[in-house]
Design goal:
Layout lengths: L2 E6 L4 H12 L6 E7 L5 E7 L2 H8 L8 E7 L14 E2 L5 E9 L2 H10 L9 H16 L3 H10 L3 E9 L5 E7 L4 E4 L4 E4 L11 E4 L4 E6 L5 E4 L4 E2 L4 E2 L15 H7 L1 H9 L3 E2 L4 E2 L2 H4 L2 H5 L4 E5 L1 H18 L3 E5 H4 L11 E6 L5 H12 L3 E6 L5 H5 L2 E4 L12 H21 L4 H22 L2 H8 L7 E6 L4 H15 L2 E6 L16 E6 L5 H13 L3 E7 L3 H6 L2 E5 L7 H19 L18
Parallel strand pairs: 18-19, 18-20, 20-21, 21-22, 23-24, 23-25, 25-26, 26-27
Antiparallel strand pairs: 1-4, 1-10, 2-3, 2-4, 5-6, 6-7, 7-8, 8-12, 9-10, 9-11, 11-15, 12-13, 13-14, 16-17
Helix pairs in contact: 3-4, 4-5, 7-14, 7-15, 10-14, 10-17, 14-15, 15-20, 16-20, 17-20
This protein binds 5-amino-5-deoxy-1-O-phosphono-D-mannitol.
The site of 5-amino-5-deoxy-1-O-phosphono-D-mannitol (M6R) has 16 residues, from helix 10 and helix 17.
Length: 614
């Protein structure tokens, strides 16, 4: 979703802003723009539809000088993706320019008021309304820019991260946030502002995370100053970034997604580091230890998440119910927040999010918090909004995930949730020590086993070519592997634009079986555990109708190998850990099909990495 970058300092701002926009590309966008104040004190704005490269081409012969500037990648909400709607937006007098991530929900009311005052608009965006409102407030109330920003934001309903540049103050940036992320980077005599730390990390590791309804003023000759929109002073809290530049590079891989798929043995080791003691077969999870009573006395656990994180939540439901015997409900955050859910103060709510910024999940947390529930976050991005508003949690430590299609973040979530389920079960006494130790030991083997699955990459790439013309796929799985089927289908849809549906294998008879034909490949996730025999019967039913089956099976499975058209083997493991292995071939299938179809794997159309608006 929209990406924001701002710079003020002694260096040329333009190259820093453009590099920052490239780093933010992974968030997803459809137009880009930049505003700079040159040495003569003129505020210039350049914008282009499409990729950042198109903005660079457009700006080649323009005046891109200046030591202060703001830049933006826009993911369209109000108004189609075109140059007029791209950010930055000028105010009426062209004295101010603004960039914005979020949605001003009451923009039409505010716009009507401004039109009555004689204002006109050049774009269809809510953002232009905000910059006009700020300028109107400045002029009408005779106040300085920061006060005008505070007063304007008091009238706004919705979410925003904004940065405002003022031609009259060519050394100062004013920024604010509510619901959309914003981080300040502190360098030597220079400052950065961004939606996340990725454009900042190469310049500094000192950051300040701006909180909701805070307005920050940064200027190269002054300390950072933070006040709320109600004008209460806030001391800036400087934190250290746990991110390195190399994590943001492709490292020799053609795409971030492939790099991230191949990183999984290491990311899972990182997720378990310091938490699993393999010599003692023990898990020590500080978020659990600190809140042991809440978990073991929980009457119910509600898991809330979106997309891939929701799939990880479904796997956790199987594990928590099996090991801890606590009822679990898994909710789409977007539905949960609006359906007046029954939430009790004894409930534990687990919110799962890679980015930690997903607007619906944040709102679901807010609602559950208001009802007195205990909120535990499983999050990848350190310092993101979701872990900060939660009572406790567990970072997944998968490292920055740049590919829009989530891969390593998913397996790290499953590992974190499995560790949590094991801790609850052990402490409640609902999980036998033998079983607990066996699973803990096996968790330690998972990175090596994933390595073995990755060894089949070339073979999977070859066979994926055969399916590039398929119009539709079905993915089937049962038990712990039903969510894997959903995840495999989502991966294919996202990056190859082929329609795909995930189903519990036994549900096939209740509808989808009507679709079976030679033209529609069926991917069956069928490791030898749980309801294996029943899944074999499902495969027989598909073959009897001339369907083509790609099966993910346990190593040495002679039965399915004889009936399926294509088989990918994964090592044997504990049932609850099978998703960590079976999902790997599905990630690779989606990746290779998208590559042969020449799709934009890392930045698929219409998608955003971090969905910060509803
Ligand atoms: O950052 P989050 O985990 O909260 O994001 C949730 C979804 O937007 C995300 O998982 C999305 O479905 C991915 N693109 C899936 O690959």
């Amino acid at each position: 979703m929209c990406g924001i970058i701002g710079y003020v300092g002694k260096r040329d701002a333009y190259p820093i802003l453009i590099k920052g926009l490239h780093r933010l590309e992974y968030r997803g966008y459809d137009s880009a723009g930049v505003a700079l104040i040159n040495e003569a004190g003129k505020l210039n704005v350049f914008k282009a539809k499409g990729k950042v490269a198109e903005l660079e081409t457009f700006a080649t012969d323009k005046d891109t000088t200046g030591h202060i500037g703001i830049a933006h990648t826009r993911w369209a909400t109000h108004g189609e993706p075109n140059t007029a709607n791209a950010h930055p937006h000028y105010s009426a007098s062209e004295r101010l320019a603004i960039i914005h991530n979020g949605i001003i929900e009451n923009y039409s009311v505010l716009k009507a008021g401004l039109m009555q005052e004689g204002y006109s608009f050049k774009s269809d965006t809510d953002t232009e309304v905000l910059v006009q409102l700020i300028e109107y407030t400045q002029v009408d109330r005779h106040v300085d820019l920061r006060t005008a920003v505070q007063l304007a934001l008091q009238q706004v309903i919705g979410a925003y991260a904004i940065v405002v540049l003022d031609q009259e103050h060519p050394d100062t940036l004013i920024a604010a946030r509510k619901g959309s992320p914003l981080v300040v980077g502190i360098g030597d005599d220079e400052y950065f502002l961004a939606s996340d730390a990725t454009p900042i990390v190469e310049y500094t590791d000192k950051v300040i995370y701006i909180e909701d309804e805070e307005v920050v003023t940064i200027s190269n000759d002054r300390e950072v100053e933070i006040v709320t929109i109600g004008n209460v002073q806030k001391p800036p809290e400087i934190q250290r970034l746990e991110m390195s530049l190399s994590q943001l590079e492709k490292g020799g891989y053609p795409h971030f997604m492939l790099k991230e798929i191949f990183e999984q043995p290491r990311t899972l080791t990182d997720s378990m580091r310091g938490r699993i003691n393999l010599r003692q077969d023990n898990i020590s999870l500080s978020g659990f230890i600190d809140n042991r009573e809440r978990f073991i006395n929980a009457k119910r656990i509600i898991i809330t998440a979106c997309g891939t994180s929701w799939h990880a939540g479904l796997i956790a439901m199987y594990a928590i119910e099996e090991f801890a015997r606590i009822p679990v409900e898994v909710e789409y955050s977007s539905e949960f927040r609006y359906r007046r859910p029954v939430i009790d103060k004894d409930d534990v709510v687990i919110a799962i999010s890679q980015s930690g910024e997903t607007a619906d999940t944040l709102a679901a947390i807010q609602l559950a918090k208001e009802r007195g529930a205990f909120i535990f976050a499983i999050c990848n991005v350190v310092g993101a909004s979701i872990p900060r508003v939660s009572h406790s949690g567990c970072y997944t430590h998968a490292g920055p995930e740049i590919g829009v299609a989530s891969t390593k973040a998913f397996t790290a979530q499953v590992v974190a949730l499995t560790m949590l389920a094991l801790c609850i079960g052990k402490e409640k006494g609902t999980l036998s020590p033998d079983k607990y130790f066996a699973i803990v030991r096996e968790l330690g083997q998972i990175p090596d086993k994933i390595e073995r699955v990755l060894g089949q990459n070339k073979r999977i790439a070859e066979f994926a070519k055969m399916f590039m013309y398929a119009q539709s796929f079905i993915y089937l799985g049962r038990g712990y592997n039903f969510p894997v089927a959903l995840e495999g289908a989502l991966k294919l849809k996202e990056i190859s634009y082929i329609h795909a549906e995930g189903y519990p294998a036994a549900e096939m008879k209740h509808g989808p079986i009507a679709l079976i034909s030679r033209e529609m490949p069926v991917v069956v996730v069928a490791p030898q555990c749980g309801t294996y025999e029943k899944v074999v019967s499902n495969i027989q039913e598909i073959k009897a109708r001339k369907g083509r089956v790609i099966a993910i099976v346990t190593e040495g499975d002679d039965l399915i190998s004889k009936i399926a058209d294509f088989v990918i083997e994964v090592p044997r493991t504990e049932e609850c850990l099978t998703p960590l292995l079976t999902v790997i071939p599905l990630q690779l299938i989606a990746y290779h099909i998208a590559v042969v179809k020449d799709c934009d794997v890392d930045q698929p159309r219409n998608l955003a990495k971090s969905v910060t608006v509803e």
